[in-house]
Amino acid sequence: MKKIVSFVLAVCLAFGSLLAGCGGGEDDVTLYVYNWGQYIAEGDEGSLDVIAAFEDRYPNIHVQYSTYDSNEIMYSKLAGGGITVDVIIPSDYMIGRMIQEGMLEELNFDNIPNYQYIDETFRNTDYDPENKYSVPYTWGTVGIIYNTKYVDEADVTGWELLWNEKYAGKILMFDNSRDAFGVAQYLLGYDVNTTDETQLQACADKLAEQKPVVQQYVMDQIFSAMENEEAWIAPYYAGDYLTMAEENPDLAFYFPKEQGFNIFIDAMCIPTCCQEKEAAELFINFLCDPEISGANMDYLGYSTPESAAKAYMDPEIASNPIAYPDDETLAKAGSFSYLPGDTSRYMESLFMTVRNG
Q1: How far separated are the first and last CA of the chain, in Å rounded?
Q2: Rounded to the nearest 5 degrees, what angle is found at the Cα of 265, between the Cα atoms of 264 and 270?
Q3: pLDDT tens digits for 84-101?
Q4: Contact, 339 vs 97, CB < 8 A?
């Protein structure tokens, strides 16, 4: 269940705003934050309104918040230019790509002292080995969500469930190339970071085989479709499953451990189009405060990269085996790495051919 923000936290935030004054300066600042949909606590169901709490702490900073459905959409918007964005929260492989292409600013960690709370496990990552460009926000896994009222447990054996004709018209699929190809790669036994075009074509062929049973390709649309039982099966992120399961307790989650599944880190970054870097770093620092992170993760269901934040979370959520799988389960997980531009474009082209077929 979503944890209601404590009176103590509310008082601390109000008191903090009095101490903080105007934060970065006397002039009003507009901070543009671009994040995944349904990926920050917004005050509903008794949760903390994270953005309102930040604006209370720094009264001269006003947040303009907008959302995207996938890393690829976010990348395309920024690569196209002509927009102002101060904070983004991409996934690991996309951060690696944006670093390689010079699209991210180096961070001034003097303005992010709460980075001290980030666990060592989430530092010196493959995508940002020198910890210059990113601060982890959440981590999580990908698996299969299914409705136990309609799906036979005997059929829940692995990724092949997403191709099962018995459930034609009730299956959803990722609407982004990297996650969709990841499912096919795990099913076919390929490296999820392959650049082999023959293997990528084989994955596209496998996804084309799936298309007749797919109801729709989705991202945030998955919430209503699965909660309202318009669809019964979907691959998606564990943190979002926990949110859906609160609305529909008949939903279950499965890790395809025999074939493998994805583990990811989403991290806060500042793109080179940023106009308010100091305010952006204040925002990142605020989200790293263990008490804020704890309240935020309580609502989101995603996993925190800060052990210190768990002290402020509902113990049931902080120990949930879907959000925090055991070491044996995690040993079967793999992560996406940065792919060369030619490979990314080829994969995207194949996916759009399948999807729009």
Answers
A1: 41
A2: 140
A3: 999 999 999 999 999 999
A4: yes
Tokens for 331, please give them.
């040993």
Sign of the four-CA dihedral 310, 50, 2, 159: negative
Residue 135 tokens, joined: 């601060």
CA distance 101 to 75: 11
CB 216 within 8 A of CB 230: no
Q: What is residue 26's predicted lDDT score, i.e. its pLDDT?
A: 61
Q: Which residues contact 230 (CB under 8 A, 6 or more apart)?
A: 215, 224
Quick one: which of 223, 290, 174, 172 has its CA closest to 39? 223
Distance CA 34, CA 68 (A): 7
Residue in this structure with the two tokens 């009222």, named with its chain if needed: 149
Please give the DSSP secondary-structure letter assigned to residue 205: H
Alpha-helical (H) ranges within the chain are 7-20, 50-57, 71-80, 92-100, 177-188, 197-210, 222-227, 238-247, 277-288, 290-300, 315-318, 327-330, 341-356
Low-confidence ranges of the chain (pLDDT < 70): 1-26
DSSP per position, 109-175: GGG-GGGGGS-GGGSS-SSSTTS-S-EEEEEEEEEEEEETTTS-GGG-SSGGGGG-GGGTTSEEEES
Provide the b/e sequence for 116-141 (b: ≥16 CB within 10 Å): ebbeeebeebebbeebebbbbbbbbb
